[in-house]
Fold this sequence. Notes:
The chain is α/β, with parallel strands linked by helices and about 400 residues long. Helix content is about 35%, strand content about 15%.
Amino acid sequence: MKTIHDFNFQNKKALIRxxxxxxxxxxxxxxxxxxxxxxxxxxxxxxxxxGAAVLMSHLGRPQGFEDQYSLKHIVEKVSEVxxxxxxxxxxxxxxxxxxxxxxLENGEVLLLENLRFYSEEKNGDLAFAxxxxxxxxxxxxDAFGTAHRAHASTTIVARYFSDKKCFGDLLxxxxxxxxxxLNNSQKPVLAILGGAKVSSKITVIxxxxxxxxxxxxxxxxxxxxxxxxxxxxxxxxxxxxxxxLALEILSKxxxxxxxxxxxxxxxxxxxxxxxxxxxxxxxxxIPEGWQGLDVGPKSxxxxxxxxxxxxxxxxxxxLGVFELETFSKGTIxxxxxxxxxxxxxxxxxxxxxDSVAAVKQFGFADKxxxxxxxxxxxxxxxxxxxxxxxxxxxx
Length: 395
Ligand code: AMP
């Protein structure tokens, strides 16, 4: 696996695909610079070697040139984070860019305009990718969040760099973290899967069963499993067409020696509302008109024990409706358990889908070993897929 540390960038231009798809407010100010900060080590390495960095990214989902999606809005924030005044060119191909590249000096950073102003980016257009490839001597992919897309700048462009291509620090860290969980893990390995639906996690479960010792299930998908086993779940979220599948997962897990842990109690509510009436009941005895929206304290206690016996922990998906305070306690308790286990030496990885939002909201982001920056990319990796953006560098 080639990374930026295998290259010396002196007098070289690094064409770096970053993920600067950051949130902006109504005044076009960056409200969360996490993604820019995450790309900083790679950019700094290039500059410190005595090279120049050409940054390319997408922002939002523009239909052609749309001012609101221009990367000009983030130039000041990028400059502030990197500590260098970043230059900007309002296109990503063509003469304007080639002029800007020609005058770009070592130690300087140039940000190109939003790649998705051209539909060729998402279409993985060859000619467009070849145009982009002119802007650097070495291609660096540091955008994990788009590594599952075979777009021009994330995948196709790599073929124009033969062996002059590598992973940036961030992407390398993502690959190493997932490898630590799936392939080079310390046992026992625990996977915690929460979130709303079984259907969106089924491929993940099937792929990881061979690699884990314990599977902890929480969140809305709990109730498909409980109903499949004959429990009463009232009005809880349930995928009735997945009941057989739930039983199949349980029997496959048993065959493979994976211990499955479902919640034993639930906080139920008479409405999907923060101020609804609530009760604490056994998870398989939920009355009609009530729905399970969080795990109960007995479940949290059992989960705490399992988490603390584990040496490797993967967490994907909240244990309850964490967006509503009344139903956030189970997810917070799990975060605290993982925090404790991590302090005691376990490796913990959080990622995939929306999990990162929960972890950030409750302040656990710097308490786990690694928080993935790519929702969809992480999910597809957990599903066992080889991501095109990663394959393109390895080829
Ligand atoms: P996912 O994107 O699949 O990880 O699902 C996350 C969503 O699942 C969050 O928005 C949670 O509010 C929701 N969720 C978690 N537990 C439940 C539950 N018991 N009932 C309904 N939705 C839930």
